[in-house]
């Protein structure tokens, strides 16, 4: 830890986690985690989706208690029973999803829930202005939240934490929602915080970012810490090896099953947001039977909107979507699903499940007009229940029965149920958004297996993922999306995650394939 | 313990033993006491010889919770059955038969009652005790003798004429609460049931009074008009919500006010109304061909008949249950209520769903005035009952939007309404019933939410336990 603003005698670590173990039913939680975070450093914690990073941070933030192990803050052991106790200990957390009220001002958002500190008036405003200047955040207290961009919102979240007196700031995947310039700005902010003596814990699975900003990097794999390394003496490749280890299943397609028959075709599809901003810009795409087409991109570059347009949940402003020769542009979601399009949504809690309904009713969801779930206008309970039982067995959903509520299951098992459901009734196309996000390793391998098997039988898959290994390993054809446009086509057999990552930020793939959007779209328009 | 007895045999044994014990004890004790002991003894049959089907039957919580609740419920069922049978049969026969029913129910409940449902019953009981306790405190504070008051209410409320009145009021309340509940299932707050039923009743009464049609057809026409008007009036709020984004809470409240104005305008002798004696005007009375005859209640000693349309309320209840649980439409309605985003992703047209459920809610609301109109008053006048829509909101909350729960809540509400009438004579403020009603709604909402959360955590633990067992077995 050579980057300490050292003052001779080694100070105690700002945070020391020792032997932390946390058990949950059916998920990779944490076991025997040991991390020491030096005061005044940026400490990155990296690991794959589902490796247990978030669980660990929730433990540190007092959202749940570890089953074993101790947490020490500045040398003294503490018991954190709630986030408010964590805040009292000077620990603050910036969540991946912002927790801000759009219709309030920056000032109001910051003081909300912390009114006892500096009131809600001039004193609070002065404090915010002072903090903003001190840490170079550039936050204006009078602005309305809905007028702010993503990067500004994130700075407000950081300011909220500072306002509450945090000296240790946890950032959970802060770059997932940012465009590259915003990422750079964020990193400048982090360096500023460090200079002021604050400690930053930075959760990520993006190796380049971690290498550029962190003073120390701890790698978590399958719920436990495998190594703490110095970024000066390591490479992205070494980190990646540490992250995935030797035993992790690698997504991999064996022989190609791609046929000539185009099942889903998008021609010049353009989607506009509610504010008339173009979020998907002239996308041309063709997926053939037995083919998996992957789309790589930093989140927020139009992937979600593209999928919603395909599913009929969002109107396409321009262009044509064709399913098996039939023009389905402008169809209702119901009709599109009935025509044979399965949908694994990116946010399973918002779009994929009825959390307070039993599993068998969740089997019906999305397929409520089709056999075996329905007979005419009636729900076929017996048929749906029997088929749910089949999915539970075939897809290895770990549950005591099909009458338990969906929210009693772990994320991986919920996802297996969804994948099982969407693969039922022999669909022609499955639109899969982040099919293995937040899913434990075993479930991940199982989901990949099922996708492969369905592909071999002629299924066409549109795959969107933030996991570049998954994209490279699972796709037959791979595109990069940036600001709503398909800017590059990559060959999944030869491309590396690093190349893909650079293409996602707009730097281009490599001289061979970096002809930009026009080349990619023209190639496909002819297909 | 022998747990080998098959269920049908268990039911038979329990029923017979309950009946026999009750019959014998009836010779020595008061009939209800004999019955309670009989059923309690019969309860040993499932406990010892049949066992439970539940997945969590071996857990402490199941033993602690399901067993006593099943016991209390079966005694209650037996008591109710016996009291009803007692109206026809002589006591030594009625009570053993009631006990037999209780014994049979005991076996079924013990075998089948899921922990979650048992929790719900427990929650209702706890809320009831709390509400009664608060009422007792209020009575104490005002210097009224508590037990005496409750006794008077119980006595008066169980008189035959009161029972008929409770059934009749309960019928109206039930329809109103189901109308509200349909909206609640969609997370829509139809505050406008009040305006919907008043407008529907007025127009239906006017149409019914204007023509004389053959019986059956006449009633069908009147009810159809009421349903159409109610559905249309509520549909306005649904349409405003999906096209203009107007909150249905605001639009239905406003539509209530408009309905009041429209009703007042139409209920004028120049328009739909005629003079009905001094100081009262109303629509032209409906000819007898349009009446719905009452169910004579002489068998239980009442002089007034039960509304014939109580059967309509039963049909609406069954229809509501069937629609929610058996049809695709009901599934989509519940799905939309639980998560509009998930419903949309599943292919539900959420906007259409909002309009449809509002219209259906309004159609049921249109029925609210029918038992009174066709069964008793036969015209819509200034004295037509008001405010039923708001009572319906409270009852839907109390009944947790469940068709059976709403029925129990409606009858309970009507019981408090009716039994408190006697208190005026004793110089006790009858508003005490309103206190009980209100505290009941509050306590049940709070207690139920607590129990619901606890139940969810319990289920998650069950899942965890199951997985733990699997892991041990695998390793």
From TrEMBL, chain A:
InterPro entries recorded for this chain?
AAA+_ATPase (IPR003593), ABC_carbohydrate_import_ATPase (IPR050107), ABC_transporter-like_ATP-bd (IPR003439), ABC_transporter-like_CS (IPR017871), P-loop_NTPase (IPR027417)
Protein name per Swiss-Prot or TrEMBL = Sugar ABC transporter ATP-binding protein
Q: Which Pfam families match?
A: ABC_tran
GO molecular function: any one?
Answer: ATP hydrolysis activity
Identify the species of origin. Answer: Nocardiopsis ansamitocini
* Entry annotated with the keyword Secreted: no
| Region (Disordered), start-end ranges | 492-527
Q: What GO cellular component entries does it have?
A: plasma membrane
Q: How does this protein sit in the membrane?
A: Peripheral membrane protein
Q: Does the keyword Ion transport apply?
A: no
UniProtKB/TrEMBL annotation, chain B:
Main localisation, per the record? membrane
Give compartment(s). Cell membrane
Residue spans crossing the bilayer: 30-52, 64-87, 93-110, 117-142, 162-184, 196-214, 220-242, 249-267, 306-324, 353-373, 432-451
The UniProt record lists the keyword Thylakoid: no
User: Which Pfam family name is an example for this entry?
Assistant: BPD_transp_2
Its Gene Ontology cellular component terms are:
plasma membrane
Statement: the UniProt record of this protein carries the keyword Transmembrane: yes
Q: How does it sit in the membrane?
A: Multi-pass membrane protein
> Which keywords appear in this protein's UniProt record, sorted alphabetically?
Cell membrane, Membrane, Transmembrane, Transmembrane helix
Any one GO MF term held by the record is:
transmembrane transporter activity
- What PANTHER family has UniProt attached to this entry? ABC TRANSPORTER, PERMEASE PROTEIN, GUANOSINE ABC TRANSPORTER PERMEASE PROTEIN NUPP
Its recorded name reads Nucleoside ABC transporter membrane protein
List the lineage, top down: Bacteria, Bacillati, Actinomycetota, Actinomycetes, Streptosporangiales
